[in-house]
Write a structure and sequence with these properties.
- It is built from 13 helices and no strands.
- The protein is mainly alpha-helical.
- Helix 1 packs antiparallel against helix 2, helix 8 packs antiparallel against helix 12 and helix 9 runs antiparallel to helix 13.
Length: 317
């Protein structure tokens, strides 16, 4: 029975992936992409990787799906004007050419991936034994958190920096639509957001705390925080929340700044970059993750808004 279910998952992943890139209706393609993310989350669970399943469901399907749907709606609203501008400038391309280019690129990447997989050894223990042996000294019981925030924390530091660079890039290109900054959502929607948003915040904090000994952590919790900002944005409140420039920038950079401060401090204290002293390793990891949670959530919310937000009031920071 389990084998049949796994086969069904594999077929669904291939079919949904194909439909997501070939469906002529972009909105329907975006919905199929969301469904693909949910099926992938189930597949990660079947592979005993709950951390990846949480990340896929929250970011790969939820937030990315919301970004795609919003982008499709914005593109449809400006489709006529853009088509006229492309025709006037002579940059109009045949409809099949971009698809052929995307298909050729996908086949090239697939070929490279197959070559890489073929070159892997048939049996490899990897670093599982070494990681398990060092786990008691890492400060946490969850091996995934130990790897991300202790054994190779410098890699996670770079990932946090990349998220900040992404926001800077988006903000440098455009302003967020003014419609996202309205503060008068319908009563029913406002009541629903008043119930759902706090639950997402509590769940995000819970995922942060349990990341030390179970699947969870700053990225999963930050994804829920970002999801709360997305819901508030869809209700017209997200712009108001992020419309205070000084506070918004402080929250966006606090994760990276705290991470860098801890890295430099550990280098001076223990002589190693992000090498925590064993008795207080858990506390330092929690400090880094708590700051990262705020920045990751704010980053995802800011990316969904799609540009820098103007001040809600002249006196706002």
């Amino acid at each position: 029975m389990a084998g049949a279910f796994d086969l069904l998952l594999a077929v669904l992943i291939v079919w949904l992936g194909w439909r997501a890139v070939t469906d002529p209706d972009l909105l329907r393609a975006a919905m199929q992409f969301v469904a693909l993310g949910l099926v992938l989350a189930i597949a990660w669970l079947r592979l005993a990787a709950p951390d990846l399943a949480l990340a896929e469901a929250a970011v790969g399907s939820g937030l990315t799906g919301a970004l795609l749907v919003t982008a499709v709606r914005g593109w449809r609203a400006s489709e006529g004007t853009d088509a006229e501008e492309r025709a006037a400038s002579g940059w109009a391309l045949p409809g099949s050419l971009p698809r052929l280019a995307a298909g050729a690129t996908s086949l090239l990447l697939l070929g490279l991936l197959l070559l890489a997989v073929r070159g892997l050894p048939e049996r490899s223990a990897g670093l599982t034994a070494e990681a398990a042996a060092a786990l008691p000294a890492s400060g946490v019981e969850n091996p995934v958190t130990a790897v991300l925030l202790n054994f190779r924390a410098y890699d996670t530091l770079l990932e946090v920096a990349v998220l900040l660079v992404a926001v800077v890039g988006v903000w440098s290109l455009r302003r967020a639509p003014a419609s996202l900054a309205r503060e008068d959502p319908p009563f029913v929607l406002a009541s629903l957001l008043g119930l759902v948003a706090p639950l997402l915040l509590i769940a995000g904090g819970y995922l942060l705390w349990i990341g030390a000994f179970a699947p969870g952590g700053a990225f999963q919790g930050g994804a829920l925080l970002g999801g709360a900002l997305v819901l508030l944005s869809l209700g017209g409140l997200g712009g108001a929340l992020l419309a205070r420039p000084a506070l918004t920038r402080a929250v966006l950079v606090v994760g990276l700044l705290v991470f860098l401060a801890v890295a430099v401090g550990m280098l001076a204290w223990t002589g190693g970059l992000l090498r925590y002293p064993e008795p207080s390793a858990k506390a330092w990891i929690l400090v880094v993750e708590a700051a990262g949670l705020l920045s990751i959530g704010a980053t995802l919310g800011a990316l969904f808004l799609g540009g820098r937000i103007e001040r809600a009031h002249p006196g706002d920071g």
